[in-house]
Design brief:
elongated; HTH_LacI; transcription; alpha/beta; 12 helices; 332 residues; 4-stranded parallel β-sheet; 6-stranded parallel β-sheet; DNA-binding transcription factor activity; DNA-binding; transcription cis-regulatory region binding
């Protein structure tokens, strides 16, 4: 720093103010200092600066799976929102969804210099009795039913599923089959429960639930089974990727969409409008989930907040060409 001050012709205190982004330095002086830094290859010591300020300007994100579109888009939204607030993001992946792995991820926080943590993970892995949180580290959880034990931000999973089922019932379908996500997924559980409840409230029969694993391949395999159900005229797929596989299976089995079978998905991934036919789906606002997670955890850091509870981000129906009235109700 003394060398930079000498080359720039300023005091070491001025160099410190520039490197830390403090006000009170003229634009001309700031340019001189930055030019001297570049000339000498000087880089401010971020660790020392963090110790002085008491923060690292970095958020940790713990997640299990990066293979699902929902987690990837949530992580992307968190990183974008964090950058807008001047924070970097450190990803702490959990190899397998076990309590020991979750504990290990939290223990690594002490080594990775993060100020707070956002967790994208099922709540059954966040048992407060066994997970030891680092002292003073604030936590916000995405996609969970943690309720009043944590601060939670989530999509309105149940509301979106209800809207999907009602859309198909209002088109005139007698009932709606469901291609659900994996059993251990909170989101899949919420969507399946809402599907079942909505059918019951409408007085419709509840068909057997068919399960996939979020992948297009699992949707394809489930679709081969559903194509054999001749009374199946409408399917609610728990995500768009399984809906993609379902569309392929129905096509191969000669079941036209939406002439013979209507299909609706969940997520509204960017590619869903390019499916054949374009997919009717439920839009999730991943950007808003990411923004609320980041703002929530920063707010807890700055105000030592302890408020728990869940904030739900609304969904909305995006009608496209994969849904229509059932065959017997078309054409008058």
């Amino acid at each position: 720093m003394a060398d930079v001050a000498r080359v720039a012709g300023v005091s070491s205190q001025t160099v410190s103010r520039v490197s830390n982004g403090f006000p009170g330095v003229t634009e001309e002086t700031r340019r001189q200092v930055l030019a001297a830094m570049r000339e000498l290859g000087y880089r401010p010591n971020s660790a020392a600066r963090a110790l002085r300020r008491g923060e690292f300007r970095t958020l940790g994100v713990i997640t299990f799976s990066l293979s699902t579109m929902g987690n990837i888009r949530t992580l992307e939204a968190i990183a974008t929102s964090a950058a807008g607030h001047g924070y970097a993001v450190t990803l702490l992946p959990v190899a397998v969804p076990t309590q020991d792995e979750v504990n290990g991820a939290f223990s690594r926080l002490g080594e990775l210099a993060v100020d707070a943590v956002i967790v994208i993970m099922e709540i059954h892995l966040l048992d407060a009795a066994t997970v030891s949180l680092p002292p003073g580290v604030q936590v916000v959880v995405a996609d969970s039913d943690a309720g009043d034990r944590y601060t939670v931000v989530d999509t309105d999973q149940a509301g979106g599923a209800r809207e999907a089922v009602r859309h198909l019932l209002e088109l005139g379908h007698d009932t709606v089959w469901h291609l659900a996500g994996p059993e251990d997924s909170f989101a899949a559980q919420r969507r399946a429960n809402a599907w079942r409840t909505t059918l019951t409230e409408a007085g419709a029969l509840t068909p057997p639930l068919v399960r996939g694993d979020w992948s297009a391949e699992s949707g394809y395999l489930a679709g081969l089974r559903l194509a054999e159900e001749r009374d199946c005229t409408a399917v609610f797929a728990a995500n768009d990727q399984m809906a993609l596989g379902l569309l392929r299976a129905l096509h191969e089995r000669g079941r036209k969409v939406p002439d013979d079978v209507s299909v609706i998905g969940f997520d509204d991934i960017p590619e869903s409008a390019s499916f054949l036919p374009p997919l009717t789906t439920i839009h999730q606002d991943f950007a808003e989930v990411g923004r609320l997670c980041v703002e929530g955890v920063i707010g807890k850091m700055r105000h030592a907040g302890t408020a728990h509870g869940t904030t739900l981000v609304p969904t909305r129906l995006v009608p496209r060409r994969s849904t229509a009235p059932p065959p017997e109700r078309r054409g008058g």
